[in-house]
Specification:
It contains 2 helices and 3 strands. It has 78 residues and is of the alpha+beta class.
Length: 78
């Protein structure tokens, strides 16, 4: 587990859990938002009213783009 740096004083923190030794050489990364609500981490929108805190320690959109940029359709065999 790796604790991500606190980029904002928003009452949240983020843990990154890396699992590398899965079946067929696969793996996955799990992000745990502590103290966050039902919001999109890193979003510029302020939708926290009634939904809880939004973490600004992680940009979920950037994480997803970085993930998908690591693969190609050709590699997937499509």
């Amino acid at each position: 587990m790796t604790a991500l740096p606190h980029l904002a004083d928003d009452g949240t923190s983020v843990e990154r859990w890396d699992y590398a030794e899965c079946a067929a050489g696969s793996g996955f990364v799990f992000y745990k938002i502590l103290g966050g609500g039902h919001t999109w981490p890193g979003s510029p929108l302020n939708l926290s009213r009634g939904l809880g805190r939004k973490s600004r320690d992680l940009d979920a959109s950037r994480v997803m783009v970085d993930f998908f940029n690591g693969y190609s359709v050709a590699e997937a065999g499509w």
